[in-house]
Amino acid sequence: PAFYRFLQHTPEKPYTIEQARAEFHKHIRTLTEQMDPDGPWFLGEHLSLVDISLAPWAKRLWLLDHYKSGGLGIPQTDGDAIWQRWFKWYHAIVDRQSVKDTWSADERYIIAYKRYA
Hints:
The protein is mainly alpha-helical. About 60% of the residues lie in helices and about 0% in strands. The chain has helices spanning about 1-5, 15-35, 50-60, 60-65, 80-95, 95-100, 105-115. Helix 2 (about 15-35) crosses helix 5. The longest helix has 17 residues, at about 15-35. This is GST C-terminal domain-containing protein. It comes from Photinus pyralis. Pfam families: GST_C_2. InterPro entries: Glutathione-S-Trfase_C_sf (IPR036282), GST_Omega/HSP26 (IPR050983).
């Protein structure tokens, strides 16, 4: 729900885009806190069903950058260990060849998600 709440934000909504972004960040942090501390995968050294289940959503996060002012907005340089761990997992997912091989062209996602944005 937080992904779509963020993606569907408009100025008419009773919450700000900053509130939607903060709520989404909170959920990502909670998820990341459950990850194996070393990774790169959710449970450690090996890809698991958790990673496979979350990969399609991780791959879609760029849509927030495409459609929303300020984009996803996860800090990349503040030294926060949780965000560092998030990016380690995120890059393991998006850089995995099997994920790349099964991903449709970005233009298809732009068209499909336009109605939500």
